[in-house]
Design goal:
The chain is an alpha/beta fold. 46% of the residues lie in helices and 17% in strands.
Length: 306
């Protein structure tokens, strides 16, 4: 089944909410951090074990309630080798719990190097003499940066097509200075990116009518989101920026087609650290509070889609 059809099916089961596993170390519940630092000292290993337990409890609480997990790789890379092993274990646990896993890596490089990113994350490594290793990470989709142009994106598109995986290309990002580059030109850069993704996506259209190649469009730019949805109805949108980044919930209606499909709405800190809304000093029961907050967002999204 093509990635886009997997997404549509999962959305029909659980809704379009995506939980972002972005474990800001200073926001992880203090009781967890204290537990592991006391046990293993102030080490990379201690913080990595803390993150793994945090992720596991979040995933367990949200299983069957949320269908998608977006994992931001920066937090794991910052912890070195221990952190990367936690990334691997988190991906595997999320997939065992039937989440569709999107790795937020924003990867890319010149085409020859991009090929290794694409194979390593999405498909398999061809190492010569007919020898093949399966993808170590084996995620369902990855975010990529289009700055280097079409030839740098082709390896990702090709591997996604071969393995029925997904790609989300940065188009309109959430950060305030995004327009400095993304608005350049009479035909704005973010629109040209969407056009490029749409062209390649014609080869991986699913039965749902959506392409397995989508774009990232921030909730902080609702008018641009509205324009892109009208112009590119076959593209899946991955929409960050809700919650801590200030994106307006009501504007999310622009991300969806009139049939209520086509967008995944990512919320990270406002769900996984929702225990902080109640000024809980230690964070006991944070996973249940995350579940309550996820239910809030699911209900709001249903209201918007109605």
């Amino acid at each position: 089944m093509k990635f886009a059809d997997q997404v549509v099916k999962k959305v029909q089961e659980t809704g379009p909410l995506v939980v972002g596993l972005d474990p800001h170390f200073s926001l992880v519940p203090p009781y967890l951090r204290e537990k592991w630092l006391k046990k293993e000292g102030t080490t990379w290993e201690a913080l990595s074990h803390c993150v793994l337990e945090f992720n596991s409890l979040i995933l367990q609480a949200l299983t069957s309630l949320v269908g998608f997990a977006k994992i931001q790789i920066a937090f794991y890379e910052a912890l070195g080798v221990p952190g990367m092993m936690v990334l691997k274990e988190t991906i595997e646990e999320a997939k065992r719990k039937d989440f569709i896993v999107i790795l937020d890596g924003k990867r890319n490089d010149i085409a020859s190097t991009a090929n290794f990113y694409a194979q390593g994350y999405l498909s398999r490594l061809e190492i010569g003499e007919g020898l093949i290793l399966p993808s170590f990470w084996n995620v369902d989709a990855i975010t990529v940066n289009p700055y280097l142009g079409e030839d740098s994106l082709q390896p990702f598109f090709q591997e996604a097509k071969r393995e029925d995986k997904g790609i989300f290309v940065l188009a309109r990002t959430t950060n305030p200075s995004a327009p400095f580059i993304q608005d350049v030109g009479e035909e704005k850069v973010f629109i040209r990116v969407a056009q490029l993704v749409e062209k390649w996506g014609e080869e991986v259209l699913g039965e749902s009518g959506f392409s397995s190649l989508g774009i990232v469009i921030g909730a902080t730019y609702p008018e641009d989101m509205k324009f892109l949805r009208e112009e590119f109805p076959s593209l899946l949108f991955l929409v960050p920026g809700v919650g801590a980044q200030g994106g307006d919930l009501s504007s999310l209606r622009f991300a969806f087609r009139k049939d209520g499909e086509g967008a995944l709405i990512n919320v990270s800190r406002d769900i996984i650290f929702s225990y902080r809304r109640e000024k809980d000093d230690k964070g006991w029961g944070f996973e249940e509070k995350a579940k309550e907050r996820a239910i809030f967002y699911q209900e709001r999204l249903r209201e918007i889609l109605r």
